[in-house]
Amino acid sequence: VLEKLVSLKERQAQALELAKIFPSMLAAYQLDGDLRAVPIRSNPQIIHYNKQIFEERGITAPKTFEDFLAAAEKASHKRADGASVYGLAIKPEEDIITTVKAMGGNVLTDDHEVKVTEPKTIKAIER
Question: What is the mean pLDDT of each run of 10 residues along the chain (127 residues)?
Fold first, then answer.
């Protein structure tokens, strides 16, 4: 697809503030180092947590992804009224790839090699 787009070399200095865009995002839109398109949307992952649950369950703020998963497990419980409290909720259609990558796996490399059957990817999905 990139081969069919015109180069943005001449236009990028005058119209775009490309220095504010992460290099890895721009790299996906380059062909042989020539920028052909500009990403207009990103999907940052944000973690929210309930301080009260952390305090009640003796959980400290996680610093690594493994700590994060352990905290999520510890936060999961049944309240006194029988209601379930879930320590982690993700949107599978959006967050699963981020989770897989955070655990060292991948689903597709930059050169389009499929990695869904790699052991780390399977381990992350099973987790």
Answer: 78 67 84 84 79 95 91 95 92 80 87 90 89
> What's the pLDDT at 118?
93
* pTM score: 0.60
Report how far residue 51's alpha carbon sits from residue 13's, in angstroms, rounded to the nearest whole number: 46
Q: What gap in Å lies between CA 103 and CA 87, rounded to an integer?
A: 18
Burial of 13 (0-12, 13-18, 19+ CB in 10 A): exposed
Domain hosting residue 79, numbered range: 48-88
Query: d(Cα 79, Cα 52) in Å, to the nearest integer?
Result: 13
Question: Has residue 18 been placed in a domain?
Answer: yes
Q: Taking the alpha carbons of 16, 22, 23, 27 in that order, is the dihedral positive or negative?
A: negative
Look at residue 94 and tell me if it is in a domain. Answer: yes
